[in-house]
Amino acid sequence: MKDPRDIIISPIISEKSMDQTEEKKYSFKVAKDANKIEIRNAVEAIFDVKVQKVYTMNMTGKTKRRGYTTGKRPDWKKAIVKLTDDSKTIEFFEGV
Prior knowledge:
The protein is α+β, with helices and mostly antiparallel strands. Helix content is 23%, strand content 36%. It has helices spanning 4-7, 15-20, 36-47, and strands spanning 8-11, 25-30, 51-59, 63-66, 69-72, 76-83.
């Protein structure tokens, strides 16, 4: 069994994700091989909340140039977690 902290890599703090916190939706960067059930269990274990739905998407890394050479940032996976109405909020996003 995987450790929940290996599944949830980091929160995504952007203008769009902060607007979604009013709807009890929180964005996280997650492990590429994690599925929705593992993400749900990890968020519930770490933050002690109830998850209603999990949305996942594979994000492709951007192509970057430095002079003549081109490179690519790594691909990553993003998860948006919607909490139930009776669940408490995640305090980590409150202070931002």
